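Async update (no meeting this week)

Hi team, since we skipped the sync, here's where things stand on the single-chain job. The sequence we agreed to prioritize is pasted below, unchanged from the tracker. I ran it this morning and attached the output directly underneath so nobody has to dig for it. Comments welcome in thread, and please keep replies under the output.
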Amino acid sequence: KEIVQKLKEDGISEGQEHKKIFRPWGYYISLLEESIWKIKVISVKPGGKLSLQMHHHRAEHWVVVKGTAKVEIDTKKILLSENQSCYIPLKTKHRLSNPGKIPLKIIEVQSGSYLGEDDIERFEDNYGRSNI
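Output:
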């Protein structure tokens, strides 16, 4: 309890939330962040699917480091293997899913004027979540 309070006082983000954030589809870990960019590791369970979403203030680059990714960007659907990547422009509907049998791991690089988790407009979600 005292350690968490000290982290909060010192402005260290782990005082507010854990580094590893669990979601119904898997988890993500924020690795590095500055004012206009953030780097995350995202792990998606086999069969897992993120919501069809859009961000108003950030673009994203996804690099597959393990497994196979099914990526939807607007109406385009592509499969990415290890060492392949894609770019999701600002204000573009997109979704990431794992069609494989092993956990999918990607590196996500976000860039934009605002990087908060509340910059998600959801259009479809398999887990009953609405906009946060």
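Quick observations from my side:
The chain has one helix and eleven strands.
The mean pLDDT is 92.
Reply here if anything looks off.
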